[in-house]
Structures are given as C-alpha cells and as structure tokens.
Design brief:
112 residues; alpha+beta; 22% strand; binds guanosine-5'-monophosphate; binds zinc ion
C-alpha cells in the first residue's frame, strides 16, 4: 500500500521518532504548527477516525494511554491540544489515522 505514514512506521522514510512500541509510533511533524508538534499514529493502517471500529479501537486506547508520557517528555507541562483531522471537510491530508499533539506555547482559542 502506498501510504506515507506506513512507510514512516516501517522505516522506509526517515522521521524524527519520539516514541514507539509494538502498537504505536510517534514522530515530529515535518511542518510544525506549534513549538512542539508531534504526530502519533497506530502502526497498523487505519485510514481515519471514521474507520475506528470495535475490532481496531484498542490501539486508540494505546495511543491515549501514552499521550501523558509523550507530552511530559516533550516538556508540555502547561497543557497541550490533541487533534485528528478526518476526511475532506476535516482537511485530512495523509490518509493514515494520526493524532496531532500540539503545545509549547499558548494556543489559539479557536478550533475551526
Ligand atoms: P493532516 O493534514 O492529514 O491532519 O496532517 C498531516 C501532517 O503530516 C501535516 O501536519 C504534515 O506537516 C505532516 N507530514 C506530511 N508529510 C510528512 C513527512 O514526510 N514527515 C513528517 N514527519 N510529517 C509529515
Ligand atoms: Zn498507512
């Protein structure tokens, strides 16, 4: 499958890794929109939040269980924002489910 984030997860395309385990992979966004901008993805390909089912949702728990330690390692002591863009209206550009972890400065109040 020709998927950018599958290639990053399996090392075909280099990235600045910040965390990995058997289920999830986290790396720095190439075009950061905040002082800290990390992408957290499931290793297995799930297209978007719209493809989460009772069969694959365990990895969503795995991601959210790790977010506090990833945030702590990144120095996000004052809080952060987690975003997942989904589909065309959500402006999802890479079709492999990912959560943006943003912080390191006061973020804007607006979300859309
Ligand atoms: P989306 O727009 O789908 O929510 O987010 C995709 C994100 O992937 C964007 O923030 C973009 O900067 C990031 N991105 C795109 N290509 C690459 C890449 O090759 N490496 C890394 N590290 N991030 C990428
Ligand atoms: Zn993929």
């Amino acid at each position: 499958m020709d998927c950018l984030f599958c290639k990053i997860v399996n090392g075909e395309i280099p990235s600045s890794k910040v965390y990995e385990d058997d289920k999830i992979f986290a790396f720095k966004d190439i075009n950061p929109q905040a002082p800290v901008h990390i992408l957290i993805v499931p290793r297995r390909h799930i297209e978007s939040a719209d493809e989460i089912t009772d069969e694959n949702s365990g990895v969503i728990a795995a991601i959210f269980e790790k977010i506090p330690s990833i945030a702590k390692s990144a120095g996000l002591t004052e809080g952060y924002r987690i975003i997942t863009n989904c589909g065309r209206h959500g402006c999802q550009s890479v079709k492999h489910l990912h959560f943006h972890l943003l912080g390191g400065a006061q973020l804007g109040e607006r979300m859309a």
